[in-house]
Write a structure and sequence with these properties.
The structure holds 2 protein chains of 2 kinds.
Chain A: E1 8-12, H1 16-28, E2 35-40, H2 57-63, H3 68-75, E3 78-80, E4 82-86, E5 94-98, H4 111-122, H5 132-139, E6 141-142, E7 159-161, H6 164-177, E8 181-184, E9 187-192, E10 199-204, E11 209-211, E12 214-217, E13 234-236, E14 245-251, E15 261-266, E16 269-275, E17 280-286, H7 293-303, E18 313-316, E19 320-322, E20 326-327, E21 330-332, E22 338-339, H8 347-360, H9 369-395, H10 403-410, H11 415-427, H12 440-449, H13 466-485, E23 488-489, H14 490-496
Parallel strand pairs in A: 1-2, 1-12, 2-8, 4-15, 12-21
Antiparallel strand pairs in A: 3-7, 4-5, 6-23, 9-10, 10-11, 13-19, 14-17, 14-18, 15-16, 16-17, 19-22, 20-21
Helix pairs in contact in A: 1-6, 1-8, 5-13, 8-9
Chain B: E1 5-9, H1 13-25, E2 29-34, E3 48-50, H2 55-61, H3 66-73, E4 76-78, E5 80-84, E6 92-96, H4 109-118, H5 130-137, E7 157-161, H6 162-175, E8 179-182, E9 185-192, E10 195-201, E11 206-208, E12 211-214, E13 231-233, E14 242-249, E15 258-263, E16 266-272, E17 276-283, E18 293-295, E19 299-301, E20 305-306, E21 309-311, E22 317-318, H7 326-339, H8 349-371, H9 385-397, H10 410-419, H11 436-455, H12 460-471
Parallel strand pairs in B: 1-2, 1-12, 2-8, 5-15, 12-21
Antiparallel strand pairs in B: 3-7, 4-7, 5-6, 9-10, 10-11, 13-19, 14-17, 14-18, 15-16, 16-17, 19-22, 20-21
The chains are: A alpha+beta, B alpha+beta.
Bound molecules: flavin-adenine dinucleotide.
Residues 13-18, 39-41, 44-53, 164, 186-187, 218-220, 222, 224, 246, 248, 283, 315, 317, 334-336, 342, 345, 347-348 of chain A line the site of flavin-adenine dinucleotide (FAD).
Chain lengths: 502, 472
C-alpha cells in the first residue's frame, strides 16, 4: 500500500455498538499490526435495552465463529420469527411481519396480487394464513428452516431476542481474547489537531490519555466525538417520527415462550414486549407532546403480564441521523450515528452494517476523502430507507381516536414514501431499491397489515381463473397450517438444541 | 375500462419484440403499424446485435429457447468484449460476461488482485474468468447445471443476426394473432391532452387504440407529438454522430466476442455471427451523409411514457452500442411494462414508476458508455456527477458504487476500469491478513479449475451444429 497504514484504533464506548465493533475488528484484522483500545465508563453506563434483532445478526455471529447454541445460552436468547403489530391499522387489529414471504408467484404474477384479487372478490382468508412463519409464531412453535429450497420449511428465516447486557459481555470476552485493550474511565476532554480538526487523543478522569489514528465513536446518544468534537450536525426527523421518550422495565414470563416480538399501539406511542428465556423485556415508546411521563409509566405497568423485576428505566431521544457519520478520523457507529425507534428492531442491524462498511472502506493515513464520502452516502441511504419504512407504520392507519394518531395519520410524509404507498394502493406494485434492508416481502406485510390494500388487479394475473387460484390457495393454507403444527414448541426446541441457559 | 387494443408503431426488432411480449402476456388485440425502411428501432441500425446476458430473462419469460433461436436465425454466442487501445498502455483487455475469480475467505477477488499488484505481481483478470478463457479457445456450450460447477460463473449473450431475429419474432407474434398494417403515421389525433385516440396513416387508414407503443426509432412518429416532448442531447459527453457499416460473408468460425478498438476519432467494432462479419466505424463528423453511413445523436427523450403513449428502443433513447446495450434496454423496458401494465386506460401511476426506473437505468447505462472515453477524449466537458463519484470512489477504495436500476454490475465496471488502466489506490485491509503464498496458491487453483472446466466444453461450432440438428 502506498500510504502509511493506520496503527491505533480507539473505540469510545462499551455498549452493544462498541463491543460489536471491537469484536469484529479484532477478528477481521487479526494477524495484522493494529492496536485496538476500547474505553467505557461504568458511571455513565449503557442504554442496554436493544434486545430484538433481525436475521442479519446471524451472519455477524457466523463470521465471528460463534456457536449458536452457546451464544443463545449465554445471552438467554430466544428465537424470533417476526413482529406482531397490535392495534396499528385499527384498534383490535393484529398482524405479524414475518421473516419470510407470503406464498409464491403464480403464472409470473406475485402472490399478493392474486391475494388482493381474491380479497376483493370473495373476501377470503387473511394473508397470514399463507405464511408458515406467521402460523408457527401464532402457535408458539419453532424449528430451523430447511435447506431444501423446494420445501415449505425453507420459506422463512429467523433472528434472536437476547439480553443486551449479556451480549455485550459475550462480545467483550471474545474481543479481549483477541487483543482488544479495555479501559475503564470517563472521558473528560478531547484534544483536536489544531489545523486539521482531527481528533488526536481523549483524556479520561483518571488522568490517562489515549491517542489514536482512527476513533470509532460508540458513545451513544451524546456522540462525544462526532458531535462534541467534530460537530457533524444532526438531521432531525421528529416531524415524521415524533416519539421522543421511552420507559422500560422487565417482568417475569407468564404463559408459554413466544417466538416473536410484539409491538402494541397505545394512545400516544406503542409498547414493546420482547420474550427472553428468563424474563420479558417491556417498554413504552411515546411522544411527550401527547402524554406525561407518569401516565406513560402507568400505561406500561398496567399492561405488564407480571410484577416488574426492576426499577423503571427512563430514556430520551431525538429521532434522526448525524449529518456526516464519518467525519475526518471519527466514524460514528450505533446511537451516536443516529436514532430510529426500535419498532422494526433495526438499530443493531445498522451497527452491523456500519462495521462492515468501515472495514470495506478502511482508511489509511492519507485519509482519502472519497472513502468517507462513499461510506456516508451508503449509510445515509440505509437510514433514510429504514426511516420511510417506520413512517409507514404510523401514517398508514385508520386510527383517529387520539390527537397523536390524528397527527401521524395526517402529517406530510417524504415524497418517496407517498409514491410507494400510492403504487401499492392503486396497483399492488412494491417500489423498492437496491440499498435498503427491507425486501419486498416486508413491505407487503406492513402495507397489508396497515390496511393498504391494492384497489386494482394486476391485469396480467386475470388470465388465471379464480377457481384455479382458490384451489392453490386452499392447498397452501392447509400446508402452512399443518407444517406449523408439526414443529416443536419454542421452549422445547431451545432445550433440544442445548441453547437453554444453565 | 381495461386496455383492450394496443397499437405498436414501427416495423423493426423493437416493434416485433414488443408485439410478441404483449401478445403472449396480455389478452389485448394488437395491431402493428409497419413503417418500413431501415430498422433503426433499437437506435442504431446494425446487422448483428450483441446482447447482454440479461436479455435471456425476457426470452425465458416469452418461452423463447435461445439455443433454438441462435440455430434458426444464423446467430451465434457471445462471452464478452475484447478492447484494444482504450487504456494508456494500449494493451488488449477482455471484458467477460459473468463473474471473475473467486473470493478467498471474506476478501473479494479484485482486492486480492490489487494486493498481488501492490507486491509487484501482475494479474490479468481474463486469466481468471471462465467466459474469457472459453472465448479465447473458441469453446462454448451454455451451462445449465447448478451453482457447484465453476462453469456457473460464466454468463453469455448472443450475436443476433438481426434480420433473422426479426423474422423469428414476427412469425411468433403473428402466430399469436398480432395483425399488421403498412404505412407511416401522418396525423395523431388526441382524445384529450395526453391520450392518443387514433393515428391516420399515409395510406389513409385510421388506426384506433387504447394504448400506443412508439417503436419507430429516432423518427419518434408518436412520441414527438406528445405534449411536453423534449430530447435530452448527450453529445457533449458522447459526441460520435456518424456510423459506417460494412457487412461481409464469412466462412470461419465466429469469434465468441466483440472486438472494439479505440481510435483518435471514435471507435470501431468487429462482430460476427454464423455466416457474417460486421464492421462498424463510429466517428464525429460534420455529417457527410455519404452512402453507407448513418447519422445519429446520442440522447434520450425526457419522459419515455406520457399519457397512453410509451416509447421503447431508439424512440426512447439512442446510445451508441459501445457496451452492447441496445437490445438490453428494449428487453428490460418490456419486462418493466409487463410488471407495470396499466390496470385501466385512465391510470397514470404505472407511468410514473416506469419513468422513474427507466430514466435511472438510461442514465446509468449512459455513464458506463461515457466511461469508455474518459481516457481518450480529453476535450470532453465535466462528467455527469454520478460518474465522477463512481470514479473517485473506485480509485479511492476499490469498491464499485452501484445505484438503483443498473445494467452493469460490479465486475462489468471493474473490467472496464481495468481496460482503461484505472486502478484503485488501496484494497480491502482484510487482505493483508492473508499470507502472500496463500493468495498465489488460490490464484493458481482458481485458474487450474477454470482451465479444466473450459477444456470440457465443445467448440462453439459443434454446439451450434448440434442445435441446428435438433431444430431440423
Ligand atoms: C428504547 C429503546 C429500545 C431499543 N430497542 C432496540 C431493539 O429492540 N433492537 C435493536 O436492535 N436496537 C434497539 N435499540 C437501540 C439499541 O439499544 C442500541 O442501538 C444499542 O444498544 C447500541 O447502543 P450504543 O452502544 O450505541 O450506545 P450505549 O449503549 O449508550 O453505549 C454508550 C457507551 O459509551 C460510553 N460512554 C459514553 N460517554 C462516555 C464518556 N464520556 N466516557 C467514557 N465512556 C462513555 C458508555 O459508558 C457506554 O459504554 C433501542 C434503543 C432504545 C432507546
Amino acid at each position: 500500500m502506498p500510504s502509511r497504514p493506520i496503527e491505533r484504533i480507539v473505540i469510545v464506548g462499551g455498549g452493544t455498538a462498541g463491543w460489536m465493533t471491537a469484536a469484529a475488528l479484532s477478528h477481521m484484522l487479526s494477524g495484522q499490526k493494529y492496536a485496538i483500545h476500547l474505553i467505557e465508563s461504568e458511571e455513565i453506563g449503557t442504554v442496554g435495552v436493544g434486545e430484538a434483532t433481525v436475521p442479519h445478526i446471524r451472519f455477524f455471529n457466523q463470521k465471528l465463529g460463534f456457536d449458536e447454541a452457546d451464544f443463545m445460552a449465554k445471552t438467554k436468547a430466544t428465537f424470533k420469527l417476526g413482529i406482531e403489530f397490535c392495534n396499528w391499522g385499527r384498534s383490535g387489529d393484529s398482524y405479524i411481519h414475518p421473516f419470510g414471504a407470503f406464498g409464491e408467484s403464480i403464472g409470473g404474477v406475485a402472490f399478493h396480487q392474486h391475494w388482493a384479487r381474491m380479497h376483493r372478490s370473495t373476501g377470503g382468508h387473511p394473508i397470514e394464513d399463507y405464511s408458515l412463519p406467521v402460523m408457527a409464531a401464532r402457535a408458539g412453535r419453532f424449528s430451523y428452516p430447511a435447506d431444501d429450497p423446494d420445501s415449505l420449511l425453507s420459506t422463512y428465516s429467523y433472528a434472536f431476542q437476547f439480553d443486551a447486557g449479556l451480549y455485550a459481555k459475550y462480545l467483550r470476552a471474545y474481543a479481549e481474547e483477541r487483543g482488544v485493550t479495555r479501559h475503564e474511565g470517563k472521558i473528560i476532554d478531547v484534544a483536536l489537531e489544531s489545523e486539521s480538526g482531527f481528533v488526536q487523543s481523549v483524556k479520561m478522569d483518571n488522568g490517562a490519555s489515549l491517542s489514536a489514528d482512527l476513533f470509532v465513536d460508540c458513545s451513544g446518544f451524546r456522540g462525544l466525538l462526532i458531535e462534541g468534537a467534530s460537530q457533524s450536525g444532526y438531521e432531525n426527523w421528529q416531524h415524521w417520527l415524533p416519539c421522543d421518550r421511552a420507559v422500560a422495565v422487565p417482568c417475569a414470563t407468564a404463559g408459554p415462550l413466544t417466538p416473536y416480538t410484539r409491538a402494541t399501539a397505545q394512545d400516544a406511542g406503542w409498547i414493546w414486549r420482547i420474550p427472553l428465556q428468563h424474563r420479558v423485556g417491556n417498554g413504552h415508546v411515546y411522544c411527550s407532546n401527547y402524554i406525561s411521563d407518569d401516565a406513560a409509566a402507568t400505561t406500561l405497568v398496567d399492561q405488564l403480564e407480571s410484577a416488574p423485576l426492576a426499577k423503571l428505566n427512563q430514556l430520551r431521544f431525538v429521532t434522526g441521523k448525524r449529518r456526516t457519520q464519518w467525519s475526518k478520523n471519527v466514524v460514528a457507529i450505533g446511537l451516536s450515528a443516529g436514532f430510529l425507534e426500535p419498532l422494526e428492531s433495526t438499530s443493531i442491524h445498522l451497527i452491523q452494517l456500519a462495521i462492515g462498511r468501515l472495514l470495506e472502506f478502511f482508511p489509511d493515513q492519507s485519509w482519502d476523502p472519497a472513502l468517507a464520502s462513499e461510506y456516508n452516502r451508503l449509510m445515509d441511504l440505509e437510514y433514510e430507507r429504514v426511516r420511510d419504512f417506520l413512517i409507514l407504520h404510523y401514517h398508514a392507519t385508520e386510527r383517529d381516536d387520539t390527537p397523536f394518531w390524528n397527527y401521524v395519520r395526517t402529517m406530510p410524509i417524504p415524497d418517496s414514501l407517498t409514491h410507494k404507498i400510492n403504487m401499492f394502493r392503486e396497483r399492488g406494485v412494491v417500489v423498492n431499491y437496491r440499498d435498503g434492508m427491507f425486501l419486498d416481502a416486508s413491505w407487503i406485510a406492513v402495507y397489508l397489515g396497515q390496511r393498504v390494500i391494492p384497489q386494482n388487479n394486476d391485469p396480467l394475473g386475470e388470465a388465471i381463473p379464480e377457481a384455479e387460484l382458490k384451489a392453490q390457495f386452499d392447498r397452501l393454507r392447509s400446508d402452512c397450517h399443518l407444517a406449523a403444527q408439526g414443529l416443536a414448541t419454542h421452549a422445547d426446541f431451545i432445550r433440544q438444541i442445548g441453547a437453554h441457559a444453565h | 375500462m381495461p386496455i383492450e387494443r394496443i397499437v405498436i408503431v414501427g416495423g423493426g426488432v423493437a416493434a416485433w419484440l414488443s408485439a410478441l411480449a404483449l401478445a403472449a402476456k396480455t389478452s389485448c388485440a394488437i395491431v402493428l403499424v409497419d413503417t418500413g425502411g431501415i430498422d433503426d428501432s433499437l437506435g442504431l441500425p446494425v446487422a448483428i446485435e450483441a446482447t447482454l446476458p440479461s436479455v435471456a430473462e425476457l426470452h425465458a419469460r416469452l418461452d423463447i429457447d435461445e439455443d433454438q433461436l441462435a440455430a434458426q436465425t444464423g446467430s451465434s454466442y457471445g462471452l464478452g468484449r475484447a478492447l484494444s487501445n482504450w487504456g494508456e498502455s494500449g494493451a488488449v483487455a477482455f471484458n467477460p460476461h459473468g463473474e471473475v475469480g473467486a473470493n478467498l475467505g471474506p476478501v473479494a477477488f479484485h482486492h486480492l488482485m490489487a494486493r498481488v499488484r501492490a507486491e509487484g505481481g501482475t494479474v490479468n483478470l481474463a486469466n481468471y474468468s471462465v467466459a474469457a478463457l472459453a472465448a479465447q479457445t473458441g469453446r462454448f456450450a451454455p451451462y445449465r447445471g447448478d451453482g457447484r460447477s465453476v462453469l456457473s460463473t460464466m454468463a453469455h449473450g448472443l450475436h443476433l443476426h438481426v434480420d433473422g431475429y426479426r423474422d423469428y419474432l414476427q412469425n411468433a407474434a403473428m402466430q399469436r394473432g398480432v395483425s399488421v398494417i403498412e404505412g407511416v403515421p401522418e396525423e395523431v389525433h388526441f382524445k384529450s391532452n395526453d391520450r392518443i385516440d387514433c393515428v391516420r396513416l399515409s395510406t389513409g387508414h385510421i388506426v384506433e387504440g387504447d394504448f400506443f407503443l412508439d417503436c419507430s426509432g429516432p423518427a419518434r412518429h408518436l412520441a414527438s407529438k406528445m405534449s411536453g416532448f423534449a430530447f435530452e442531447d448527450w453529445s457533449a459527453w458522447l459526441p460520435n454522430n456518424d456510423m459506417r457499416v460494412s457487412i461481409t460473408p464469412s466462412t470461419s468460425p465466429p469469434p465468441l466476442y466483440a472486438h472494439i478498438e479505440a481510435h483518435d476519432d471514435g471507435w470501431q467494432r468487429f462482430l460476427s455471427c454464423q455466416d457474417w462479419v460486421e464492421e462498424l466505424v463510429f466517428s464525429r463528423s460534420a455529417g457527410t451523409g455519404a452512402a453507407g453511413t448513418y447519422a445519429f445523436t446520442n440522447g434520450r427523450i425526457a419522459l419515455p411514457w406520457t399519457g397512453n403513449c410509451l416509447a421503447i428502443g431508439g424512440a426512447a433513447a439512442v446510445l451508441e452500442p459501445v457496451a452492447s446495450t441496445q437490445l438490453h434496454l428494449v428487453a428490460t423496458a418490456l419486462s418493466r411494462l409487463l410488471d407495470l401494465f396499466p390496470h385501466s386506460r385512465e391510470s397514470s401511476v404505472e407511468a410514473t414508476e416506469y419513468n422513474r426506473q427507466t430514466v435511472e437505468q438510461l442514465e446509468n447505462a449512459r455513464d458506463y458508455a461515457i466511461l469508455h472515453f474518459v481516457r481518450t477524449d480529453r476535450s470532453a466537458p465535466p462528467l455527469p456527477e454520478r460518474l465522477t463519484h463512481r470514479l473517485s470512489a473506485y480509485e479511492a477504495s476499490g469498491r464499485v458504487a452501484l445505484y438503483d436500476e443498473e445494467t452493469f454490475e460490479t465486475w462489468d465496471w471493474i473490467a472496464l476500469f481495468e481496460a482503461l488502466d484505472i486502478t484503485p489506490r488501496r484494497y480491502d485491509v482484510v487482505a493483508n491478513g492473508i499470507a502472500g503464498e496463500a493468495i498465489a496458491a488460490h490464484f493458481e487453483r482458481v485458474r487450474a479449475v477454470m482451465l479444466k472446466a473450459v477444456s470440457s466444453l465443445p467448440p462453439q461450432l459443434s454446439y451450434l451444429q448440434s442445435q441446428k440438428a435438433v431444430a431440423a
